[in-house]
């Protein structure tokens, strides 16, 4: 089920999908909160992190995101933000431990309890405790600080529907620094019944660089975009109007910057993990 077909769903099916996404988000929050509490009971919580049942999925997802990031951002970012980090910030922990080993990670969540639990997990780690920070705030209330980040990750459940997601992305487009990278988690196919979808055509203010749809146990699709100067013509608008009229949601590969965005290439999992 491709993104552009979502409009063809009946109202009843759309309502069921909305309820499923909400249920999925609630269940994910409860699961992460439970395991965060469990891990915090150990003297060194991060040594037991593999107890989380979806740890291997997060390893693969973080690896994919890092590989996509390095295609478009060759230097190691000094400051990274993760929006919607939750009580068990596995993505930030894995990225900071395995891939971006000198970057500082600023994790944002509106739930103070989630941040309290998350900070306990890294407090005993001599490295991560110095590089991971937790901010309790609705991201829509954060503006000037967003300009400090070279890379921002947007969690799948920040914005539970199209309207909320669009509001967050518009806020980021207005406040991120030109040239900064935004990595977003979306969904494709039947997985749209578990997570909200981001349509690349809706990323006004950003240059879409990569759109990747996993076909294994990794659920989330990954979209990589670059904040563009305000006067620069939207690349994704150009794609929709000249390359894929009315079918922007069918982009499955990445826009090759060496070909000025005129060639859309397919990415396979083997290529990303090699």
Automatic annotation (TrEMBL):
<dbReference type="Pfam" id="PF03059">
    <property type="entry name" value="NAS"/>
</dbReference>
<comment type="similarity">
    <text>Belongs to the nicotianamine synthase (NAS)-like family.</text>
</comment>
<dbReference type="InterPro" id="IPR029063">
    <property type="entry name" value="SAM-dependent_MTases_sf"/>
</dbReference>
<dbReference type="GO" id="GO:0030418">
    <property type="term" value="P:nicotianamine biosynthetic process"/>
</dbReference>
<dbReference type="GO" id="GO:0030410">
    <property type="term" value="F:nicotianamine synthase activity"/>
</dbReference>
<keyword id="KW-0949">S-adenosyl-L-methionine</keyword>
<keyword id="KW-0808">Transferase</keyword>
<comment type="function">
    <text>Synthesizes nicotianamine, a polyamine which serves as a sensor for the physiological iron status within the plant, and/or might be involved in the transport of iron.</text>
</comment>
<dbReference type="InterPro" id="IPR004298">
    <property type="entry name" value="Nicotian_synth"/>
</dbReference>
<protein>
    <recommendedName>
        <fullName>Nicotianamine synthase</fullName>
        <ecNumber>2.5.1.43</ecNumber>
    </recommendedName>
</protein>
